[in-house]
Recover the amino acids of this structure.
């Protein structure tokens, strides 16, 4: 039965201390509570109905769910601190608090009549956990005829893959998933976005206009009051259209000559050179990348295109026995999902080998850099790419999910965080699609007592804090021999103070702002949490007063951290480093390897035996044994071990392993 009313109400589910204390909540509890508080304030300001659903179990746990009793872990006992919501989300007079013991908020018989009495027809649901009680509340509201909207960025889960599957399942049936900003804009009847001409997709060589108002809002990292771009979000229809265009163009392209395909990549490299200045300006403007790092990135992008052209020209069928060879065939249509921090070099590093080996592409760029994405596509078109061969669909996570799920997409190449990797791997596993994923890093540098400490400190300050630590290869943990730890700490602090924090447009700047104020605030909260847990902040970790209009953070060094704590274990992707003291070589190795990630590790010593021992035992896909800055070579395999990557390495020779399928041919070798 459809609900009669048209008012919108907010239902906050299980935002209670015990649920928020889950160590693997995504997004983390501080972020979730801050976002929920903002949404709650918006409803209260507009005098719209607000209900809270809280789990309450008897103080002795006797009526807890049976599986909680079995585990002897019963959260939310009546009267306990764990059952209370955070102060920012405490119910006020006039708001209903529905009580529940199991999953469903509507199990409290007062909730439905309370909403109906207030003329509610549309229910916005937020809280935790998405895969459990939020899902149940959505289904119950849907069954009762409410139009249900889930505040997409105000729901959390400790099981990201389960959360994403739930999101897709519910979105297909029972609820719309909208960002809180969208929901609040709709409360006032405002269109959510002034488009400013940004397309939702590039399909068949032409920009596509958005169907509806959903968009990703990106603010200027240097002036967070200023909206830089409102990027429309493509959905399954645009993704399907893009995949259809790619499939049609790919058939003819795969039959074209190797010379023509490699020639396209050389021509694209030339276009990248020609667009160098514009791309650098876009990198500085859109993601606040300091100018000299932006210049390096554009140069690397052109190198990726040229190296892919060489590879395509030289890779051919391999004779394995008389009359038998292994031929490399294109995969078909490849889905490409890329991050915001290298929005030029990473896409080129994937698109170039994909196209060179005869594939079509559906690319989901990061929404923070729409200008970079458009300029890359324009350059590719000028270089002579057939219309429809490379298409782009703009958007965020949900658009990436649509790409992974699209049946015409045969394989997916992703660069992003390990959390995103876990979700994308699940979606690819469902359809048995190959995945090549380059993921996050929580990289360690080992500094032994015989190292040139001043030189290592200077190099490592740059490695940790250049581009505000927003590089997957950034060093985040300094594992230092106990006998020199004090001296190294002082030298590193001094080297950090010497870094230039400021305008990314200036040639000398080392540290620009973080990509968003939201990200900076999450990092501030993580530093504060570490401090409460006993960490000592040696330097930095605050917002520089003269730069408070942007998302800057003074580079921070933390010492005395528990190796098991979040600040040591998780990738901050920010200008935050931790100093860990090692008793001896084996302890240094254990600390360096003792995290889930395995992307980069560096060794600073003058002892060749120690260098060899560490080099062989470090669990990282990229190991630096020489002093000086780490310069990633575009021809070298780029590979993360453990939670830092999946599938074959990328770049250089290794690209053939992912962007082609091997076929055993019995008979004459294909030409
Ligand atoms: P991200 O994982 O948030 O986003 C990467 C891409 O995936 C974007 O296009 C984004 O829209 C999409 N995405 C985000 N959440 C998703 C989800 N749940 N499901 C599917 N797609 C999703 O990463 P980011 O913030 O753009 O970039 C920073 C991260 O990327 C860091 O963890 C960094 O270490 C990693 N990174 C890794 C490498 C590497 O080569 N190993 C290089 C650069 C960046």
């Amino acid at each position: 039965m459809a609900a009669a009313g048209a008012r919108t109400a907010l239902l906050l589910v299980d935002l209670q201390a015990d649920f928020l204390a889950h160590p693997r909540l995504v997004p983390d509890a501080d972020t979730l509570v801050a976002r929920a508080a903002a949404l709650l304030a918006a409803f209260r300001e507009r005098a719209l109905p607000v209900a809270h659903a809280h789990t309450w179990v008897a103080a002795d746990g006797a009526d807890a769910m049976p599986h909680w009793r079995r585990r002897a872990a019963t959260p939310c006992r009546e009267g306990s601190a764990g059952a209370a919501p955070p102060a920012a989300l405490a119910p006020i007079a006039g708001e209903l608090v529905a009580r529940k013991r199991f999953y469903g908020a509507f199990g409290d018989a007062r909730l439905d009549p309370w909403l109906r009495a207030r003329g509610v027809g549309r229910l916005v649901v937020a809280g935790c956990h998405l895969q459990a009680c939020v899902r149940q509340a959505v289904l119950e509201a849907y069954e009762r005829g409410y139009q249900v909207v889930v505040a997409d960025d105000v729901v959390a889960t400790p099981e990201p893959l389960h959360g994403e599957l739930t999101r897709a399942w519910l979105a297909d049936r029972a609820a719309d998933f909208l960002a809180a900003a969208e929901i609040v804009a709709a409360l006032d009847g405002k269109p959510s976005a002034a488009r400013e001409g940004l397309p939702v997709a590039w399909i068949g060589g032409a920009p596509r206009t958005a169907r509806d108002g959903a968009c990703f809002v990106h603010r200027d990292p240097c002036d967070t009051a200023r909206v830089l771009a409102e990027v429309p979000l493509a959905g399954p229809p645009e993704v399907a259209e893009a995949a259809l265009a790619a499939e049609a163009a790919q058939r003819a392209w795969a039959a074209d000559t190797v010379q023509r395909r490699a020639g396209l990549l050389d021509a694209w490299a030339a276009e990248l050179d020609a667009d160098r200045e514009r791309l650098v300006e876009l990198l500085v403007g859109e993601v606040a990348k300091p100018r000299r790092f932006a210049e390096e990135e554009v140069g690397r992008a052109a190198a990726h295109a040229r190296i892919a052209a060489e590879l395509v020209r030289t890779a051919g069928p391999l004779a394995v026995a008389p009359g038998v060879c292994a031929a490399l065939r294109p995969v078909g249509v490849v889905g490409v999902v890329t991050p915001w921090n290298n929005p030029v070099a990473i896409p080129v590093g994937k698109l170039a080998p994909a196209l060179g080996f005869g594939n079509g592409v559906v690319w989901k760029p990061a929404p923070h850099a729409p200008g970079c994405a458009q300029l890359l596509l324009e350059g590719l078109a000028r270089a002579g790419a057939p219309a429809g061969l490379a298409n782009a669909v703009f958007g965020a996570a949900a658009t990436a999910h649509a790409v992974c799920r699209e049946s015409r997409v045969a394989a997916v190449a992703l660069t992003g965080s390990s959390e995103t990797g876990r979700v994308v791997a699940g979606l690819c596993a469902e359809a048995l699609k190959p995945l090549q994923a380059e993921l996050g890093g929580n990289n360690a540098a080992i500094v032994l007592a015989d190292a040139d400490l001043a030189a290592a400190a200077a190099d490592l300050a740059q490695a940790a804090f250049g581009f505000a630590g927003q590089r997957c290869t950034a060093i985040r943990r300094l594992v230092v021999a106990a006998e020199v730890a004090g001296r190294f700490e002082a030298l590193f602090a001094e080297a950090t103070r010497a870094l230039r924090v400021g305008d990314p447009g200036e040639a000398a700047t080392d540290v620009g702002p973080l990509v968003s104020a939201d990200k900076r605030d999450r990092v501030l909260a993580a530093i504060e949490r570490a401090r409460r847990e006993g960490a000592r902040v040696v330097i930095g970790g605050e917002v520089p007063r003269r730069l408070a209009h942007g998302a800057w953070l003074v580079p921070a060094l933390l010492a005395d951290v528990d190796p098991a704590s979040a600040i040591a274990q998780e990738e901050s992707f920010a200008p935050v480093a931790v100093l860990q003291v090692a008793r001896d070589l084996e302890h240094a190795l254990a600390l360096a390897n003792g995290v889930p990630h395995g992307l980069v590790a560096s060794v600073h010593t003058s002892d060749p035996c120690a260098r060899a021992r560490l080099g062989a035992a470090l669990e990282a896909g990229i190991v630096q044994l020489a002093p000086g800055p780490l310069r990633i070579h575009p021809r070298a395999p780029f590979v993360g071990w453990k939670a830092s990557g999946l599938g074959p390495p990328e770049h250089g020779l290794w690209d053939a392993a992912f962007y082609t399928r091997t076929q055993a041919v019995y008979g004459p070798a294909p030409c």
The chain has three domains: 7-187, 201-208+217-438, 443-631. Residues 7-187 form a domain with the Rossmann fold fold (CATH 3.40.50.850). The first strand starts at residue 7 and ends at 13. Residues 291-314 form the longest helix (24 residues).
